[in-house]
Specification:
This protein has 5 helices and 10 strands; from the N terminus they run βαββαβββαβββααβ. The chain is an alpha+beta fold and 273 residues long. The chain folds into 2 domains: 95 residues, Pseudouridine synthase I, catalytic domain, N-terminal subdomain (Alpha-Beta Plaits); 138 residues, Alpha-Beta Plaits (2-Layer Sandwich), CATH 3.30.70.660. Strand 8 and strand 9 form a beta hairpin. The N terminus is likely disordered.
């Protein structure tokens, strides 16, 4: 180097390339008792809080969890789906085992898989199916007490089935939903709504829709149980729906009989049934 040679400046720090990530989806089941719903809430025990804590302990990085459906306090799930980003080298089998050791049996990862980069557990869903279980026997069953609504009065299942018919299709479900946002639309498309008599007094309500508004399934079940008990006629369900006021549907079924059973995607996920 001479006096007139250009001075070499300090070397610029090498650019730090973040580790590549992969989108992960989990199929999750949980018993809602003991949780203040799914969504994270400061100072409260929630499903998302327990799940995120277990995931972050294993992955050693923060996790931003997206779920297919925010279940309320006391509501269960068999087919909840969540998605998040993890480092590309994540071992999903080890991840599922690690989470289950920490959260089982209250919360269980049933399956884990890599997903497309744009997969979103909520926005990519094409439909959701809920199940509600009613135990219609003179006396309660302690072994079903946490997952079924015990109704001692005899119910007319045929009338309850007739009450399902007006619910099918696209409707404004304002009569059956809480409206936290006055501007939010409560129009939903119900694809299936039916009662299944499993015998032994166990009645199962199945309902599938593109999406659901807050407390919609519990309100519908409460109204249909009133139909079965003779408090409301099946033909009145159409009028309740058309009223578009929450006061029209009086009874709200308790949360512990409700379960998020399945979330649909295109193409189908091919996970356990």
């Amino acid at each position: 180097m001479t006096l007139f040679s250009p001075q070499a400046g300090p070397e610029a720090p090498a650019a730090v390339t973040p580790d590549p990530t992969v989108r992960v989806r989990l199929l999750v089941a949980y018993l809602g008792a003991g949780f203040h719903g799914f969504a994270l809430q400061p100072g409260q025990r929630t499903v998302a809080g327990v799940l995120v804590s277990a995931l972050e302990r294993h992955l050693r990085h923060t996790v931003e969890l997206v779920c297919a459906g925010r279940t309320d306090a006391g509501v269960h799930a068999w087919g909840q789906v969540v998605s998040f980003d993890a480092r590309h080298d994540v071992d999903l089998d080890r991840l599922a085992r690690s989470v289950n050791r920490s959260t089982s049996p209250a919360v269980v990862v049933r399956a884990a898989a890599r997903a497309a980069p744009d997969f979103d557990a909520r926005r990519s869903a094409t439909g959701r199916r809920y199940r509600y279980t009613v135990l219609n026997t003179p006396t309660a069953d302690p072994f079903r007490a946490s997952t079924a609504w015990h109704v001692a009065a005899p119910l007319d299942v045929a009338a309850m089935r007739l009450g399902c018919d007006p619910l099918i299709g696209e409707h404004d479900f304002s009569s059956f939903c809480r409206r936290p946002d006055p501007e939010a639309s409560l129009v939903r498309v119900v694809r299936d709504a039916r009662w299944v008599d499993e015998g032994g007094g166990v009645l199962r309500f199945e309902v599938e829709a593109s999406s659901f508004c807050h407390q919609m399934v519990r309100s519908v079940v409460g109204t249909l149980v009133d139909v079965g008990a003779g408090k409301v006629r099946a033909g009145e369900v159409s009028g309740i729906l058309r009223a578009r006021t929450r006061a029209a549907a009086r009874t709200l079924a308790p949360p512990h009989g409700l379960c998020l059973w399945e979330v649909g995607y295109e193409p189908a996920e091919g996970w356990p049934g």
